[in-house]
Design brief:
alpha+beta, 2 helices, Ribosomal_uL4
């Protein structure tokens, strides 16, 4: 597998060759897959938390 890199200014960088044995691609690592799904779901939830300010709270007694 060949991986091409990109420099920070957007121009093409070097390319790397990565060799992964086929035996490693045949099995599914369920705990790793679970961690990836949890990270993606946590990333979708981030940025939604908020608290009301004094002006947004309804007046009470």
């Amino acid at each position: 597998m060949e991986i091409k890199t990109v420099k920070s200014d957007g121009t093409a960088g070097s390319s790397l060759t990565l060799s992964v044995p086929n035996e490693d691609l045949d099995t599914i690592n369920v705990p790793l897959l679970h961690e990836i799904v949890k990270m993606q779901q946590a990333g979708l939830r981030s940025g939604n938390a908020s608290t009301k300010t004094r002006g947004e709270v309804s007046g009470g007694g």
